């Protein structure tokens, strides 16, 4: 962590934008101080009226996931090598700056949904509070190798999800919402490039242990950060399965997307060409290279549930 942290200053400028130059949620929302505020809200509500039920459910689930940033920040602050007390300018600075950029996503989506008139905001807020209070266990422990595998994968997954909601919003005749989802997706891709670069650097100096960490994470499967998602009166995690089904039905995020992300990471980190590994790491490499084909065979036999589910979030 000290080795790859030597270039954190350049990482901050390469993968994050200066705060004063960055977009903010208010750039995409009606301005309450303007005389045409009411008219703009009416137009927003009209454009949101035709969004399909599953789409609204997925957008709410995405929003709740983004709003659980306090959980993700506190988790990363506890990773080995991150020390906000004795080294606040090192890895802790990256975690804070990354969180600050991510924080805008939930703010923007939350305000859009509030103005849309399609959402039971209290029910959604209850789910958000539950998700932060329940925390999460992503199978990484405090190990930076496993955490950076997770964040590399997860940032790519959220890029796919927001990019697809942007495309669908445009198809549903809502270019405003499409732009909102699009700018969020662009942030996620920048962040993914950063975390992928961290893993690449680790492979340069500790290839066998990094390979074993990658194998371990893929054997466990990468769980989504909102996998404990629930509603009032629903067991922890049960709502997530319904949210996931809706995302698969829409094609927002599917099993095939999971496999394609894995494929892209194996290619990015040149796993096939890794040499000078110890015996355990060589076996791990072979397992990883065979995994996408194995997952595709399973995916071909998996059907997406078509059963409708009534989310408490949607009135």
Please describe what this structure looks like.
- The protein is mainly alpha-helical and 315 residues long.
- The protein is built from twelve helices and no strands.
- The longest helix has 31 residues, at 175-205.
- The chain is globular and about 65 Å long.
Give a brief outline of the structure.
With 315 residues, the chain is an all-alpha fold.
What count of helical segments does DSSP give?
12
* Uncertain parts: none
**Amino-to-carboxy terminus distance:** 48 Å
Shape: globular
Computed Rg: 20 Å
Rounded mean pLDDT is 95
**Helix and strand element order:** HHHHHHHHHHHH
Give the % helix: 55-70%
Strand-residue fraction? Answer: under 5%
Structural class category: mainly alpha
What profile does the largest beta sheet have? none
How many distinct beta strands? 0
List the helices and strands and how they pair.
Layout: H1 8-15, H2 37-49, H3 53-67, H4 69-77, H5 91-116, H6 121-134, H7 144-171, H8 175-205, H9 207-220, H10 238-250, H11 255-268, H12 279-300
Helix pairs in contact: 3-5, 3-6, 3-10, 4-5, 5-8, 7-8, 7-9, 7-11, 8-9, 9-12, 11-12
Q: What distinguishing features does this structure have?
A:
315 residues, mainly alpha, 0% strand, globular
């Amino acid at each position: 962590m000290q080795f790859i942290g030597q270039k954190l200053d350049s990482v901050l400028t390469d993968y994050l934008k200066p705060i004063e130059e960055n977009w903010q949620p208010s750039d995409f929302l009606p301005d309450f101080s303007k005389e045409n505020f009411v008219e703009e809200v009416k137009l927003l509500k009209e454009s949101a009226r035709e969004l399909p039920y599953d789409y609204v459910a997925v957008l709410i689930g995405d929003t709740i996931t983004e709003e659980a940033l306090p959980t993700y920040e506190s988790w990363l602050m506890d990773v080995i090598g991150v020390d906000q007390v004795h080294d606040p300018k090192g890895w802790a600075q990256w975690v804070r700056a990354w969180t600050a950029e991510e924080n805008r996503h939930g703010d923007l989506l939350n305000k859009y949904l509030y103005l849309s008139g399609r959402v039971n905001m209290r029910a959604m807020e209850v789910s958000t509070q539950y998700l932060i209070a329940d925390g999460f266990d992503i199978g990484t422990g405090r190990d930076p190798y496993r955490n950076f595998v997770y964040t590399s994968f997860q940032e790519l997954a959220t890029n796919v999800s927001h990019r697809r909601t942007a495309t669908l919003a445009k198809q549903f005749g809502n270019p405003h919402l499409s732009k909102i989802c699009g700018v969020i997706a662009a942030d996620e891709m920048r962040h993914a490039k950063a975390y992928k670069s961290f893993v690449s650097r680790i492979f340069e100096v500790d290839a066998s242990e990094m390979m074993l960490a990658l194998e371990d994470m893929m054997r466990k499967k990468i769980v989504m950060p909102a996998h404990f998602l629930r509603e009032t009166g629903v067991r922890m995690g049960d709502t997530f399965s319904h949210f996931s089904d809706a995302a698969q039905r829409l094609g927002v995020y599917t099993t095939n997307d999971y496999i394609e992300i894995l494929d892209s990471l194996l290619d990015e980190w040149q796993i096939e060409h890794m040499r000078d590994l110890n015996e355990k790491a060589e076996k791990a490499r072979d397992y990883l290279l065979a995994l996408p084909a194995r997952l595709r065979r399973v995916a071909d036999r998996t059907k997406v549930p078509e059963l409708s589910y009534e989310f408490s979030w949607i009135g």
